[in-house]
Every structure is written in C-alpha cells, then in structure tokens.
Amino acid sequence: MEDIIVRGTNPEGTMRVYSAITTQLTDKAVKIHNAYPVAAAALGRTLTGAALMGVSSLKNDGDSVTVQIKGDGETGSIIAVADSKGAVRGYIENPYVERPLNSQGKLDVGGAVGSGYLSVIKDMGLKEPYVGMVPLVSGEIAEDLTSYYAVSEQIPSCIALGVLVDTDGSVAASGGFMIQLMPGASDADADRLTKIISSLDSVTAMIKSGMSAADIFFKITDGFSMIMENAGIFPEYKCSCSKERMERELVSIGKTELERLINEDGHAELSCRFCGSKYNFDKAELISLLKRAKG
Ligand SMILES: [Zn+2]
Fold first, then answer.
1. Selection from 3, 16, 28 nearest residue 53 by Cα
2. Would residue 283 be called left, alpha or beta, if left means φ above 0 and alpha means ψ between -120 and 50 degrees?
3. Termini Cα distance of the chain
4. The pLDDT value given to residue 214
5. Do the domain assignments include residue 295?
C-alpha cells in the first residue's frame, strides 16, 4: 500500500483529523539506519508524528518542523524533520537496541527511550524559530506528542502512532492518526471521541487488516459527519543534504579543528546522518573553507 496522509474536518471546523500510512518511508528509514525492531518502532513513530505535524501545521515550501526526543534510555536522541508536503527524514543515535517485549507483548519503545524531554522546533522563515519543550510522558512517542500539543500549543489532541516490524526486520506496517479539537468543540464531542478511540484496534492492526488511510479516517470519527479532502498527501523519506550544507557544517567546527583536519588528515569525509550519503573534501577545498571559519 502506498504511503499517504489524508485529512479533513467536520462541517463546523471544530475537529481536524489526519490519518497516515507510512509503511514504506519507515521501512526505508529502518534500512538506512539498520535499526533493530525497538529502535525501528521508535524512529518510525517519530517520523510519522513529524510528518503529521508538518502537514497539519506548516504552510510554506521552506518551512520545517523538527521533533527531537531526548531520553536517557538506550536509543539516545531521536530526531525527525518534516516539511509541509510530507517529506521527512530522521536519525536515531543508537539503532542497535535489543530489549525484551513489554508486559503487553509489544516492542518496548518507552523503556528504550527512557525519560527526558521532547522538543519541537518549527522553522517558518521567521527570524526566530518557534521552540516548544515538554517532559516525556511515557517515551512511547504518541503520548508524548499529545502532551506537547496540550501543554505547549494548548490544542487538545489524540495521537496514535504504530510500527509493526516483521520477523525479517522489515517494516510490515507503519502509520498513525491525529485528531485535534479546535475552539468551539463541545465536551460531548470530546467524550464521544474518547469512547471511539478506546474501542479501536491498534493502528498497525488496522493497517494490517487492509484498512486504507481513508478507512481509518472514517473509523476514528465514526458517527460524526466528516469531510475528507480528496487530495491526499504522499509522504516520503527524503533527505535534503548537499555538498553546500556539508561545507557549512565543516565551517561551523571552527578554524582550529579545520586546521587540524588539513594538517593531520589532508582530507575529510562527511557522512549525512539522515541518509548516509558521503561527501569528500580534498585538501584544497578544506583550505578554502578555512577562510570562512571563525576562531
Ligand atoms: Zn542526507
């Protein structure tokens, strides 16, 4: 099934709903990072959450949202960056996490992430990016993002994210949904939603059973009249690295460090942490970068 995000609202505009299937992009990320199942789930959930945030809250081409999970567990930091059109890329500090299943027989993402903080940086071309930070609630990612919306943006939300890893390590299903209540939503609506959500199967079970993003969209809003936009958004794992970007990274390490590279190594090879692409700089290139470096 093709990766897609569908979205819509109720006629009153008090309820915004997004439903995503991200199996392919998560599988691609897992292969790039060689992530073991628990890390794969943590990374896939973060990527899917970031894609949902990007599509729902960014407007312009150059805008980006960065979700950073900084827990004290084995995964280390997890980062996902998304734009307004569903392009997303990510990184997990330690992809080789091995952990027994949790008490519900599921991948123990919360245990692997540990406790710490979730931060969201929205860069919308303004002078200062918008930054919000909340403590992790469970490390299960969806709950943490829900808490971020409640605390930092005062938007009551329901977010579910799931990644199912096959026995061969590939991703069998990945996706999620997000429901947000806008001003004017009634308590009765919120109660009805809570009832629906608590009766649902997991996102991955729904995807595995063959439900499309649209099917999930209508399932999670069962009983509400909803308007789903016809045009879906097609999210994908896509890196935006370039030699220029790597040059800026090299410049930012400072004169002393660059001089050391030039004199001791005579060249530099940089690898993009999001996609693994390699960039080589020879001695002459490093020397020309030295002029741009500070300190
Ligand atoms: Zn890259």
1. 16
2. alpha
3. 52
4. 97
5. no
pTM of the model: 0.94
Report yes or no on 281 lying in a domain: yes
**Which amino acid type is present at position 81?**
V
Name the pairing type of β-strands 15-21 and 4-9. antiparallel
The C-alpha atoms of residue 81 and residue 144 are separated, in whole angstroms, by: 17
Do 22 and 130 have their domain in common? yes
Which positions ≥6 away from 127 have C-beta within 8 Å? Answer: none
Measure 88 CA to ligand 1 centroid, in angstroms: 11
Q: Which of 137, 133, 82 has the alpha carbon at shortest distance from 109?
A: 137
pLDDT in tens, 191-211: 999 999 999 999 999 999 999
Ligand 1 centroid distance, CA of 113 (Å) = 24
127 alpha carbon to ligand 1 midpoint, in Å?
25
The boundaries of the domain holding residue 248 are 243-290
> Average pLDDT, stretch 48-60?
97
CATH number at residue 156: 3.55.30.10
